[in-house]
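We now fix the convention by which a protein and its fold are recorded. The integers have meaning only within a learned vocabulary of local backbone shapes. A complete example follows; check for yourself that the lines match position by position.
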Amino acid sequence: MKKQTFLGTTILALMLMISGCQSAYYSAMEKVGVHKRDILIDRVEETKDSQQEFQSALERLTTLINFDGGELQDAYNQLNDDYESSLQAANEVSSNINKVEDVAEALFDEWNDELEQYKSASLKRESSKKLAATQRQFDQLLRSMRSAESKMEPVLSSLKDNVLYLKHNLNAQAVAAIKGEFTNLKRDIQLLMNDMNKSIEDSNKFIEQMNKS
């Protein structure tokens, strides 16, 4: 029981420390003229870029699907390289989405707090409307990002299985078997690509709207 309490306290302390570091970072950036909305736009851009990198890594996997003769070791090396690239890109996608969510929460909290500083009721109402509209658009963007993110793990898991299978079975039969698996996997990849494209489209709309505001 004491160990569980200690572990819970440690996790909470780490979370508070990370939160404190983020707050200090935002404060430091604001002192040099870079505000939370600017950081949010940059992080949405970074997330979009990492999603596109992930897509590129998956698209290269068609090399193995179209494998027809040649060196089997080369086929394995190509598949393994593309899997590792996909895994790294997927980790960057998830990390960037978390960063986007963090700065958005900080921005909306600040915006909401500053509403109480208005003396003009009309200006306060207008700002409140813009806050609500921006939050709605961001919530849609975040759902889109998380939806695409949730489809990455099953695809990566299937890719890892194929990499391991080919590693220990470097023969023509193994390549034929993997081709069959890839036929099914392609459907999952296409669904993931569709979600990624939707998320990228929502990112572009959000960035455009933020730049107009």
User: Anything to note?
Assistant: DSSP finds seven helices and no strands in the chain. Confidence is low (pLDDT under 50) at residues 6-17. The radius of gyration is 23 Å.
